[in-house]
Design a protein that fits this description.
Low-confidence stretches: none
Strand content: 25-35%
Radius of gyration: 16 Å
Order of helices and strands: EHEEHHEEHEEH
Number of helices: 5
CATH topology: Chemotaxis protein chec
Distance between the termini: 9 Å
CATH class: Alpha Beta
Number of strands: 7
CATH superfamily: CheC-like
Structural class: alpha+beta
Shape: globular
CATH architecture: 3-Layer(aba) Sandwich
Largest sheet: 7 strands, antiparallel
Mean pLDDT: 82
Number of domains: 1
């Protein structure tokens, strides 16, 4: 469910400023420009990577079991989670672009593992100087009975917010 919220709410949705998260960041260009992020707990990021890699490689070819330190990821896990974030964010942006009748262009994804406050402070400072609300959604990845929760943030620059709100109105949000 998509909702408007304050910067404080966004940080709380990510688990608080000191919660360590894995974030997939995608810049947004075009008629709608700003930032988009998918935030996952490290544990959920490992779980998502295992689900994706099992489907891709098969159970016999998976990397070793998750390390005892949840902040340690191997390259293939990071790549899988980065691509899941890229696809999730880009699908949302493509849907918006269809309703805007204009292209919305994502930048290549970047992945960061850091405290939520450190990741979000810079992005939110870029936006909150002229607006006091952003758009956020909780998202769930489901495979069978397994569910993985994440937070999807679409953070347009202030001059793009009316464009985004018009597009969301057109799709019934």
């Amino acid at each position: 469910m998509l909702r408007r919220c304050s910067a404080t709410d966004v940080v709380a949705m990510a688990g608080g400023p000191e919660a360590v998260v894995l974030a997939v960041y995608v810049g947004v260009r075009g008629s709608l420009h700003g930032h988009a992020l998918l935030l996952l707990s490290p544990t959920d990021a490992h779980r998502l990577a295992q689900i994706l890699l099992t489907g891709l490689l098969g159970p016999g070819e998976l990397p070793e079991a998750a390390p005892s330190d949840p902040l340690i990821f191997d390259e293939i896990e990071l790549s899988a989670v980065q691509e899941a974030g890229n696809v999730t964010i880009s699908a949302f942006l493509n849907e918006l672009g269809m309703h805007l009748h204009q292209p919305v262009q994502p930048t290549p994804p970047q992945i960061v593992i850091e405290m939520a406050g450190a990741i979000l402070d810079g992005v939110l400072m870029d936006l909150m100087s002229t607006v006091d609300q952003v758009l956020a959604a909780k998202t769930t990845f489901t495979e069978g009975v397994r569910e993985i929760d994440g937070t999807l943030l679409v953070l347009p620059r202030p001059d793009s917010l009316p464009v985004l709100l018009d597009a969301l109105g057109a799709i019934g949000v």
